[in-house]
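Per reviewer request, we include the raw input and output of the structure prediction for the construct analysed in the revised manuscript.
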Amino acid sequence: MQPNATAFPIDPGIGGTTTDANTWLDAQSETVRRVTRIDARGRLVQEPVVEDGAWVDPAARLIGGMIIGAGCYVGPYAVIRLDEKPTPEPLIIGSGSNVQDCAVIHSTTQRIGGRVIVAHQAIVHGAVVEDDVTIYIQAVVDGGGAIIGRGAFLHQGCYVGKGVRIPAGRYVEPGRKILTQAEADALGPVPEALLHVREHVLESNDAHVRRYLSLRA
């Protein structure tokens, strides 16, 4: 486990013996088993797993059960904190995604897809984020079952309310608040110019990963 990663205990409601913990763990999915172990006190704890080819800055903070996919970049002072998950399944961050400086992923967030951008100071507080989404600087996704559809672009400082589903490929303008499903369904497509911005950001962060990993060689 990385020095900036913290294991977090879970309570699946089983008996308190090591045998009970082993029996429970043996019955779980492969992804749960990857992030879960029994500690020296006999407790079930979950901890971050960072796959080969990903880079997590030493100043970032990872807490609880998650799998950070190959090619991901997690920037300085980003916080990914999974201490309120309702199930033992880990958060999975798909390959090629980036969580930039001071961004926060918290609460019941279940999945961050591949090639997702969570930009500086953005907050994802309990949501499903599908592939190819951009959550730009200081944008907020406020959970409660929110789903951000594939290829959506949430621009700077916007807000997506609890339980709202942003359809695939839709655009939320800077500073706008989307509080109802009707508002989300009426959103227009992502402007072509922003698709080019997005590709540039992905290329830059991919280069960061390669350069930082080269320092370990």
